[in-house]
Amino acid sequence: MKDIGIRLVMLSLLFIIAGCGNELDNYEAPDGGISGQIIDAETGQPVPLPVEGSSGVIVNLYELGTGATKSVDFYAKADGSYANTKVFNGQYRIVVNGPFVDICSDTVVISGQTRLDLKCIPYSRIKATASVSGRVVTINYAITPTRSSDVVSDVYGIWNISPGVDNSTANCVGLQTVKNNTNGSFVFDLDKEKAFASNAYKIQANGNKVYFRIGAKVSGKVNYSTTMEVTVH
């Protein structure tokens, strides 16, 4: 009888522990989300950014009125868009530290899936076009600093085998650099680049597509052109 009593007590304790575990796991799921575009305040156009990841631009959400001390952080995308679909409803301050003259920020009340476009001033605006002849790709570019006092210190011509292109080693297999030249061109003879030969099977599997971008450094910050997709033969 004594053994039976002990077993009953132990069984009761197991039920209590299991019940507590279920209670602890029974938190409400996030009921809202935030998405939008980072927009050039003067042109109304999306601001291209570094590739999402280690070199990317981080979006910080600070919840207001709750005493929360930590932000919800996630990456903006290379096309200037951002999204986090799992955020609790409430009032937030949203801050984006990117290649902008001033910090890009605003306040927002998140109620369900909420959209907010953010306005900023990039350090520079870049126009670029690509032309191709066989496996020779020419990128023409024009860079305009947004403030007359700013100087473009470095210009990058970058290509990659995937659409994610910036001047970090993870998103660049080919790179050319010039100094202080706001109007010019880069010529990539891909047959002469080792990275093209070593990645030939990947490029062919992707329809012979390669991807190019121009970057411009001002005050230590790099702005980018949109990504250009080129098919080579």
Task: Explain what the structure shows.
- The protein is mainly beta.
- 15% of the residues lie in helices and 46% in strands.
- Strands 11, 12, 14, 15 and 16 form a five-stranded antiparallel β-sheet that branches. Strands 1, 4, 7 and 8 form a four-stranded mixed β-sheet that branches.
- The chain is globular and about 60 Å long.
- 29% of the residues are buried.
DSSP strand count: 16
Distance between the termini: 86 Å
Radius of gyration: 25 Å
Largest β sheet strand count, sense and barrel closure: 5 strands, antiparallel
Low-confidence stretches: none
Instruction: Give the SSE string.
Output: HEEEEEEEEEEEEEHHEEE
Please count the helical segments.
3
Shape: globular
Mean pLDDT: 91
The percentage helix is 10-25%
Query: What is the SS-derived class?
Result: mainly beta
Content of β-strand: over 45%
Summed up:
The protein has 233 residues and is mainly beta. It is 15% helix and 46% strand. The strands form 4 sheets. Strands 11, 12, 14, 15 and 16 form a 5-stranded antiparallel beta sheet that branches.
Task: Spell out the blueprint of helices and strands.
Elements: H1 2-24, E1 32-40, E2 58-63, E3 72-75, E4 81-87, E5 90-97, E6 104-110, E7 113-115, E8 118-120, E9 124-133, E10 136-145, E11 152-160, E12 174-179, E13 183-189, H2 194-198, H3 200-205, E14 209-218, E15 221-224, E16 228-231
Parallel strand pairs: 1-7, 1-8
Antiparallel strand pairs: 1-4, 2-3, 2-5, 5-6, 9-10, 10-13, 11-12, 11-14, 14-15, 14-16
